[in-house]
Design brief:
The chain has 149 residues and is of the alpha+beta class. The protein has four helices and six strands. It has helices at residues 10-16, 23-34, 40-51, 56-68, and strands at 38-39, 73-75, 83-85, 93-97, 103-106, 132-135. Strand 2 (73-75) and strand 3 form a beta hairpin. It is globular, with a radius of gyration of 18 Å. 17% of the residues are buried.
């Protein structure tokens, strides 16, 4: 998790999660962790820049497996392709710009997971809240003389 300032050994993390270590898997994991809420196309292009050839299908399969193993997190803001990030396990949320689609992490709304408790849990044991805040990033935010429609 790059945002916490720790050094990581992707090969060791892959092995610990039960994956065979390959150059492509290391590159995919590194790319997601060094990026900012990347979609599959961006991950694929950056891995290709690093390694040469890798198929989109291989990237999809690796990201799906990494998500299942808790190595990366998949988010799906409405109207946007799935995106992947390396910040996992801390129940953080996201700010999404309505104009450019930029995604920014925001820490838990209250503190301890699940951050928000539903008024009625219908018998569920709630262990996570997935909150997306929508608005305009600093670059897209309307100027005082502009009116939002």
């Amino acid at each position: 998790m790059k945002d916490r300032g720790h050094l990581h050994d992707p090969a060791a993390e892959l092995r610990a999660a039960g994956f065979r270590v390959t150059a492509a898997r290391i590159a995919i994991l590194d790319t997601v962790r060094s990026g900012d809420h990347l979609d599959v196309e961006t991950v694929t292009n950056r891995v290709r820049e690093r390694l040469g050839q890798v198929s989109v299908q291989a990237v999809y399969e690796a990201l799906h497996a990494f998500t299942g193993a808790g190595l990366v997190r998949r988010i799906e803001p409405a109207g946007s392709p799935a995106r992947f990030e390396g910040r996992v396990g801390d129940n953080h949320h996201h700010l999404v710009c309505r104009d450019c689609g930029r995604v920014t992490d925001v820490d838990c709304a209250v503190g301890e997971a699940p951050c928000l408790e539903p008024a009625r849990d219908a018998g569920y044991l709630v262990d996570e809240a997935d909150v997306t805040f929508w608005g305009y990033c600093p670059d897209c935010r309307p100027k005082p003389e502009q009116t939002l429609t």
